[in-house]
Amino acid sequence: MLNHSGLIVFDMDSTLISIECIDEIAHLLGQRDAVAAITEQAMRGEIDFAASLKQRVSLLEGVDVSLFDSLFNPIPLTQGAQQLIDFCKLKNWYCVVVSGGFTWFSAKVAGELGLDLHIANELEMSDNRLTGRVLGAIVDGQKKAETLQMLRQQLPEDVPVVAVGDGANDQWMLRAADLGIAFCAKPLLQEIADVTINQPDLALIIPELEKRF
Questions:
Q1: Which of 59, 144, 57 is CA-nearest to residue 100?
Q2: pLDDT tens digits along 12-42
Q3: Beta bridge mates, 135
Q4: Which among 185, 183, 205 has a CA at the least distance from the CA of 93?
Q5: Domain with residues 6-212, CATH architecture
Q6: Quick one: 108 exposed, middle or buried, by C-beta within 10 A (0-12, 13-18, 19+)?
């Protein structure tokens, strides 16, 4: 049982951080345009996320994992991210990132911001290089929503549950929450969100939480 006063679940790429990690990894191989085009289609909801992820990761075969540090030094946190997390922590909320990205990055974001839990996809590696495959089940939109519901069941009844995301892959998570927030989001997500924030500052979510909870 989680003894918290609320739950907030975030997407990572283009939400808690200002980049799409997979696009930046692809840039290291000179494949950024090819991968970014597929990412954009997936985030608009035009193609299946899990299939698109496998397709994109296959293009990353051979990348030296040590190069990841160059993408995350410093961690490209979105403006207001730490302020928002600090606010939620003061309210004793359980803070989680559930990402269709990768654990190497989500672990560092969770550590930097002080999040309680991070869940993402795991890239297969061999001799410190990417094999072009993902290990285990894909963290897709349905998995994000299932994670939110699983965490909700561990909390006291009637505590607020909030989800924040930017892409079509976040729609099920936002629908499953008591308050779904579209942050600088694709049109599909803005249509179903309870709140839309179109300025790239996560601290703008704080007044919305204060108003409702």
A1: 144
A2: 999 999 999 999 999 888 888 888 888 888 8
A3: 122
A4: 205
A5: 3-Layer(aba) Sandwich (3.40)
A6: middle
11 is catalytic: yes
CA 100 to chain centre: 6
| 175 neighbors 189 (Cβ within 8 angstroms) | no
Residues 77 and 18: beta-carbon distance below 8 Å: yes
Catalytic site residue from 13, 23, 166, 170 = 13
CB 62 within 8 A of CB 29: yes
Residue type, 197: I
Token pair belonging to 185: 């989001």
- Does residue 127 carry a catalytic annotation? no
Tokens coding 187: 């049109």
Catalytic residue selected from 11, 23, 116, 170: 11
Tokens of 158: 């009637």
pTM above 0.90, yes or no: yes
User: 116-155 burial, b for 16+ CB within 10 Å, e for fewer?
Assistant: bebbbbebeeeeebbbbebeeebbbbebbbbbbeebbeeb
Place of tokens 């072009």: 132
Q: Say whether the peptide bond before residue 74 is cis (omega within 30 degrees of 0).
A: yes
